[in-house]
Every structure is written in structure tokens, then in C-alpha cells.
């Protein structure tokens, strides 16, 4: 990192965009005026340190920023879609006010679009603007690629009690064991995209939706604030069934499409007769950056590391524990790529996609992430995929001779449950 610092002045409604590589760090300070990162206001004279991130610092009224360190890209942009995003927020805020007055339900927004359209960024903006007005919607993450709330390979939901942090974003918070969620609720999916196992994906969104609705029943404030649902890049007409399922199970009231005309027109046609659902098209920001596979892999590795070790702002000390093979019941999802002819008689591929198979512990587990299931010994083991996750462990060593595995865990002591699910994500602790 160079010590050289640069000062930028943003006029009202301008945006400073920066990209920082994983190996570099850039420090941002707000020197005067006001500015926000994806809707979260920056505090003056506070150090915001970015690494491996692509960020937009937007100012409604103008500001001066000081940037220090090595950015691979940095520039001031004059054109942004922030007005249309604010208009959407204003409409949602009116629906929340009406819901509060009538004791009804707030808006349920499904954000759709291709990969790298700015869906997560728009979700953060809508959540932060709501929180800034004392509304606390529930954020539902149906994009398993990055693990924004918990861990890559999961589908999750969390009440937004605070702003999304400009640096740490949705940092990992403790997971709840019950179906009724207080902290984030999380289900093991094990893959990076909805298309990797559509049948399981659909099963899990149904489970997640019913857990979210169970919470909304008792939590008036969240019910009136509504839901913001972020998705992966679901634009292929073959995956419209998944979109329809999301709309149905979450009772979506607004579908927001970012930067994709055909998807907008298809959704408009699908829901044209539905007065309860509005379909809205928004422009993609010119600042949204396409991320290549290598970037995504590094972002996933960082999310896994963050789960165990926290971040520079909030460090955790994970614990190492030994578990004996005999005390573990490890399952993996039935291989969905097996040809139908290779499946046992009577089992078609669609059924097999939501079946689990038991696994013998062994060297194959090394460097794996295991989801600790909330399933307990009194429950039917076939329900393991439908049970929420209570946490995750990383397998740092396997000792065949002693029949043990060593796991890294955020909490000390023995594993709280014996039922574990193998994720397709691996991690090398460094
Ligand atoms: N206005 C902007 N200026 C600079 N960077 C931006 C801007 N908007 C978004 N980005 C960055 O572009 C990248 C892609 O944006 P985002 O994650 O919101 O897209 P997405 O549609 O959710 O992608 P995916 O489908 O892959 O999850 C992110 O790194 C984000 O921080």
C-alpha cells in the first residue's frame, strides 16, 4: 500500500467508484459533507478499509473524500440510477406506513436480474434506507454463491436490525436453532447456483418461506416492514418455475428486474392479471462490475474465513475440537448428476436430488465445510435437509488411525449435534 493520499470532491448526486484487489487495501475517509455506501451513511473522520471489494460511495448533497492506498480502479461518475432506486424506496416506505396504519403486511420485494446486475447492491440500498427510517425488514438471501449472511452454499434470512456495514456487509451473526427465527435462519443447500439442484432449491425456499412467515406472525414490526429478497442470476426461461415458486411461497408483492428487458417482459406477461403483484424495471448502474470466476472463488473463500475468524473490524477466535467417527452422522446430497439409469429402481432423478446418503468419515472430508444440522436424535434422519443449520465447522485434519477428525468451530467444546451435511465448498485454512 502506498502512503500517498488523494482528495476527491463529489458534487451533489455524484458517485465515487473504487475497486481494490484482494492483495491490496484502500482506506476511505469522509472529510466533509455526507456520503453513503449502498445506502449506509459514512461517519465523518472514520477509517473505512477495503480489500478485495468493489464499492460505490454516493453523495446526495456533495462531499469531500480522502482515499489512501492502492485501488485498481477509481473514478467519479456523474450518472447513477440512484433517483429511481430512491423512488422505489419511497413507494415501499408508503406501503410500510399503510401497513402500520391498517395492521397489515408490508411490501415483499423480489429482486431479479442476470448475474452482476447489481441485485445485492440494490437489496442493500433498500434495506439500509428502510433501517434509516426505523423500519426493520427481513432480508432473504436466495443467492447461495457468496454466502452474504452466513456461509456460501446456504439459503438464509435475517431481520435487519442494523445497517448493512459498508465494509463487512452482512457479517456472520449467530444462527438460531428453532424454526422461528430470532437471529439468521439458514438452510444447507451445498451448491453455488439454483440450477445445480433445482429440486432441492425449491424445497428449501418453501421451508425458508414458512419459517419466515412463522416469524412474521408474531413479529408485527417485521411484518409491517416486509421482506427484501435477493436472488442469484436467474434469467433462463427454464428457471421461471423457481421464480414462480418464490413469488408464491413468499407472497411477493413487487418483482424488481434489474437491467434485463426480456425477463421484465416475461414477468410482466406472467403477472399481468395479478393485481397484488407489481412488476418494476430498473436500470443497472454503470458502476456494477462483472466479477470473474477467480474473483468469486476468492470472495467465497473470504466469506468462509470470515465465518470462523471474523474481520479486521471484529475478530473472532475459533476453537479446534476432535470428534470421533463413531459420534458423527455425516450425509451428503445424492449425486444429482447420476443418470436416471444409474439410480436404484423406483427412484427418479428428481426424487434423488432431495435425498441424502450417509457417508463414512475419512480423508475425503479434509478441508471440507460441514453444516451442523439442528436435527436431533429423536427426529427422522430423512428430514435432515429440511432442518435448519445451527452452524458450520471446517475439517482441518483427519486421522484414519485414531478414527477422528479435527474441526475448527466458532464455539468451544464438543459438536452440539451429531448430524452433519457435507457442502460442495472446500477451504484451505491459511
Ligand atoms: N455503482 C457501483 N459502483 C461500483 N461498484 C459497484 C456498483 N454497484 C455494484 N458494484 C459492485 O459490483 C459487483 C456486482 O454487484 P452486485 O453484487 O450487487 O451484483 P449482483 O447482481 O448481486 O451479482 P450476483 O448475481 O453475482 O450476486 C459488486 O462487487 C458490487 O459491490
UniProtKB/TrEMBL annotation:
Residues 10-99 form the Clp1 N-terminal domain. GO terms for cellular component: mRNA cleavage factor complex. The keyword Transcription regulation does not apply. Keywords: ATP-binding, mRNA processing, Nucleotide-binding, Nucleus, Transferase. Residues 113-310 form the Clp1 P-loop domain. Residues 317-429 form the Clp1 C-terminal domain. It is found in: Nucleus. It comes from the Eukaryota. ATP binds at residues 15, 54, 116-121. Component of a pre-mRNA cleavage factor complex. Interacts directly with PCF11. This is Polynucleotide 5'-hydroxyl-kinase GRC3. The lineage of its organism: Eukaryota, Fungi, Fungi incertae sedis, Zoopagomycota, Kickxellomycotina.
